[in-house]
Prior knowledge:
Residues 1-91 form the Fe2OG dioxygenase domain. It comes from Hibiscus trionum. By secondary structure, the protein is an alpha+beta fold. It contains three helices and nine strands, in the order E-E-E-E-E-H-E-E-E-E-H-H. It has a single domain (4-142), classed as Jelly Rolls (Sandwich), CATH 2.60.120. 2-oxoglutaric acid binds at residues 11, 16, 23, 25, 31, 72, 74, 84, 86.
Amino acid sequence: MCSSHCGQVGLGAHTDLDLVTILYQNEVNGLGVQSSSTGEWIDCIPSKDSFIVIIGESLHAWLNGRLKATYHRVMLSGDKPRYSVGLFTVPKAGYMIKAPEELVDEAHPMLYKPFDYAELYSMRFDASNEGRYTESGLKGYCV
Length: 143
Ligand SMILES: O=C(O)CCC(=O)C(=O)O
Ligand SMILES: [Fe+2]
């Protein structure tokens, strides 16, 4: 059975800005991840005792694009409440995120200029919070 909000977006499509996010949810699904190759949305159906690991934009930049930041969203379904807790790993303010030399060469030019995570974060999550769902906070900020 599906209530009136079924199929509505609970949390819009976004990437996380941090390094890595670790999510744990109750047994009500709703999280979807987008395939970076096909654009297709894939329902995430974790087993009861598993964690979901999401690559954030900062790790994507630090690894000079070797891993992609995952677009994800939450869709509403059913009547049971969904609970989800997240551990967001973030660099301390003042530390610069910069791809190491080993990952930068002619075939892999540096994708992003070095940046301070705290500044990137405050740009996206300003008072309006509108930046939360911008395409990529990182691209606007430090390409
Ligand atoms: O509710 C979830 O499982 C995802 C939450 C999320 O993507 C976020 O807080 O950035
Ligand atoms: Fe997220």
